[in-house]
Amino acid sequence: MSDKLYAYGVTEDGGDLAVDETGVDGADDIYTVSHGPLAAIVSDIEELDPERSDENVRAHDDVLRAVLVDAERTVVPMQFGMVFEGKRPLKNILRTGRPTFSRSLNDIEGTYELGVKLVADEGARVDRAAVEADVDDRLSEVSVGTVENDLFSDRLVFNRSYLVKRDEREAFDEAIDDIEAAHSDLTLQYTGPWAPYNFVDIAIEAQ
């Protein structure tokens, strides 16, 4: 058994955490390493530098989603590929980063991230400013934060991430339905829930 640990994110230490997902590199046991009030969500791994394959990236996100949705736990996500050489260096991160982790967990308590894109048909003429104003007006009422993402294509009219409270998810879904009906000339892409990557700013180095 490897002493290396792959870390997915950090949550408050609330005892056992049941995650029924396969982790990175096929890990079949997701568990926590605790220090003080914090717990890192981890699995065992053999490699210090896991392959950034579609399967591994999806596994990373699936574990975090299970923590957020199934276990209903708030989590500060780590970027893909964070491997620690044992529990001691990981606990050291939890110890030294405790004020920052605790503040971030408080800021995003009970929330997750949802992504919204609107794509125009090829050659279509769209009033981008009007679409942005309408969509953001509808979604700002049912979210607690928003981040503008890159418009990496000429056809991409709208691309934002929203921080949404769990008990506002139904209202957010209804607003998405209204947007889709109001802008039937655009293709709506609605994704999530995701760990709130766009709403935390913590730089962590694996050890």
Automatic annotation (TrEMBL):
Gene Ontology CC: one annotated term: gas vesicle
A Pfam short name: GvpL_GvpF
Predominant place of localization: other
Superkingdom of the organism of origin: Archaea
Transmembrane segments: none
Family per similarity comment: Belongs to the gas vesicle GvpF/GvpL family.
GO biological process: gas vesicle organization
Originating species: Halomarina oriensis
Name of the protein: Protein gvpF
Keywords: Gas vesicle
Coiled-coil blocks: none
Compartment annotation: Gas vesicle
